[in-house]
Amino acid sequence: MTATSRPLTGFTVVENDSFVAAPSACLALSQLGAEVIKIDPLKGGPDIDRWPITPEGRSIYWGTLNRGKRSVAIDLRSEEGQELAQALITATGEDPAKTGIFVTNNVGRSFLTDEALRARRADLIHVKVQGTATGGPGVDYTVNAETGIPGITGPAESPRPANHALPAWDLLCGQAVVSSVLAGLLQRSTTGEGTYSEIALEDIALATVANLGWYTEALQPAGERGKHGNHIFGTFGTDFATADGSAVMITAITTRQWKALVEATGMTAVVDALQTALGVDLSLEENRYAQRETLEALLKPWFAARTLDEVTQALSGTAVLWAPYRSIGEVATEAAAASAAGTATGVLRGLDSDRLGQMLVGANPIRFDGEYLTGERPTVLGEATHEVLSQKLGLTQTELGRLSDSGVLNS
Hints:
This protein is an alpha/beta fold. The protein has helices at about 20-30, 60-65, 80-90, 115-120, 140-145, 170-190, 200-210, 215-220, 255-265, 270-280, 285-290, 290-305, 310-315, 330-340, 385-395, 395-405, and strands at about 10-15, 35-40, 70-75, 100-105, 125-130, 195-200, 235-240, 245-250, 320-325, 350-355, 355-360, 365-370, 370-375. The chain folds into 2 domains: about 5-210 and about 345-405, Rossmann fold; about 245-325, no CATH class. The strands form 4 sheets. It has a 6-stranded parallel β-sheet with strand order 3-2-1-4-5-6, sandwiched between helices. The chain has a 3-stranded antiparallel β-sheet with strand order 7-8-9. The two termini are about 40 Å apart.
């Protein structure tokens, strides 16, 4: 699939947002071919300097999530700036069917309410990300705390809740935003009507946990589950240390995987004797889970006596489902080397940026005809302001100069 034949080529999405959920959604829409115009405050939003940062203090976070977009910096506190923002969002362009798409997580900006925008364009596709469905605040960290997930995460012996480092609910919310945009486009193409959808981060988290069956589980006679460290709930899988200080994750979810693990580690006779002694059939997943600590103790010496290379040699080519633990630095170093050598073929790609240096970014993970959609460019706050306003709203250089001189636009 070429850059000009991506599914959303020719569509224009306008965003006014910050942090992860909505920006990640618009990044995905951009990778699918949409032109994304990001309306920013003159000095950037609240995440403009968010960590991680370069040694010069520039936000890798902002630069990575917002690449491939056209940043328009406007004084959104001024009436003229608010009018420009509304005009950009509701502009029809040459093909109205491909414009009028707005994604936001703004709070308290009355000029960006659906009522105000829909008065200018009735078929607007408007998606708003919220903290809670009642309009209250919420971020991944606070929402996660209320789901109950931290109570079953982390070492079994620790009484403290354990937060996950990955903003999972934000990222799931971002993909829900993409779905909402596409649903809106489908409705408008079939009925001519627009859509206004609200997606609360809290709802994303609660619905996800509920749909995994975990809340129903907690209502059963056994009650809610406790922590059990790196053991996989309901089956056998855990981490093992190797002789050279590395670690691997081993899973035996299916009978085939379990049998392969037993054979590869030379434990067939020992496991047969264990089954006889315990009176259990370890080919059954639930029995492997019940005996997880015994099985961990049984296998631990095998891994501890071998280096990672030796473990790799023993398990490669078998039906054992496993992976070595790697640090973020190890993954980055390997991907950067492949990018520099021109041999990168996976989802991770290098991207040169004047402000951030060599970046490692992820292509869209959806492969069309076997190919990843790549080719984004770095984005700089406000760099496209004059160009976009000229192209989309027909502002002349004189008008742009006046707005810059009055402080409505960046110079």
